[in-house]
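Annex B. Sample input.
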Amino acid sequence: MTAWQWVKLVGNFVNLSTVAGAVVGVLGRATFSRGPRGLFFATGYKLGFPIAGAFTIGNVVLSKHERAYFEDPALVRHEERHSWQYFCLIGLPLLPLYVVGVVVSFLLTGDPASRNPFERLADLKEGGYVERPIQPIGKTVTQAFSGLRSRPKGP
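Annex B, continued. Sample output.
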């Protein structure tokens, strides 16, 4: 671990974002292990939200997948960039700002990541995202409602 990664590890512990990530992992009944670059992996996460292959809170990267999922160095770099975002924004204020980024991206592209500045700064491609073009808001609204109508009803 580099000196700067050590600073990030301590900073994200002090700003409580890593503590919050650990709490979410415990609530999601995840199994914890040390990862590279000062990260911790919380695998086997069992809560259904958020819907993502992996998500980062502080220096904790949570995933429903097993540890082998993180053998992709590009994905680990992507998630580490998110941990730096927590450090730079002094922890948990990142969460509401990230939600704003999701909403803006969805309105512009119909996709929660394509225009989300946090995902773009973490490198969309390394995170496994496809960049979608900006589209008219009417198309986004139509897509959202057609997706709701096409869901099966009943128990």
